[in-house]
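Practice problem. Given the sequence and the SMILES for zinc ion, write out the predicted structure.
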Amino acid sequence: MRPALLLALVLSAPAAALEVRVDPAEAVPGDVLEASVLGAVEPRRVKLTYRGLEYALFPTPPDRLRAFIGLSAEAAAGTAPVRAVEPRRWRKDLAAEAVVTVASRTFTARKLTMPPERARLTSQPGAQDGAARIRAVAAVDTPVQRWEGPFRPPAEGRVSSAYGHPRTVNAQPWAWHKGVDIAAPVGSTVTAPNSGTVALAGTYPIQGGTVVIDHGQGLMSALFHLGELLVKTGDEVAASTPVARIGGSGFSTGAHVHWGVYVHGAAVDPAPLTRRRL
Ligand SMILES: [Zn+2]
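Answer key:
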């Protein structure tokens, strides 16, 4: 091609433009933000950041990149941009942003009482092993989306404790509640909230019987205080597959399953995900 013609084509080509969309743009602590980037020229070069952290982007047919951002119960209220930048060779970088507003959300404090021998679990050797294993599993992003459609609660029963409560146990400060508790009789079935791979199946002093399911792209479900486990690490599970029985094991006040959802390690509110299609 003659240089003059090439130059004319380059000059007449429409200017590339990035676009960022975030759902929801008005959020509360506990929400999952779905950020989409459109218009990338070289998708692999695009970086997405929010409040100083970079989030993994995954190609999502037909034409966008997508990232999930988890807002924990402790996410600060305020306004901040989700920003995408595509560095370009010999040209100005492409950049775009979408502003997200996080409203404040009040969580009711709860006072729990526990028999002293069970409360002593927290000072046992190995008490932190479960949390350390779960953090290690949560640090790995698998790029394939394994979940399909809305999430389903892992057991039939009433919600005995909602997400986000600040808590004390026997008048001592304790971690805020990083999931929802569903009360159900010992021995009843606990099912996978959505499809995925069992990233961890084991028993730990605090969490008791534990099953962690990796749904892909940074999303994980963690099920705690289980009785008998029906799956092992590495198993593929479909949504609603039985994975365990209700037990009440570990640092627990009764027969229930604790269901936590983590997005790149941030504990989000599972309840809205049962009504939403990510
Ligand atoms: Zn719980």
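Check your answer against the key. The first strand starts at residue 19 and ends at 23.
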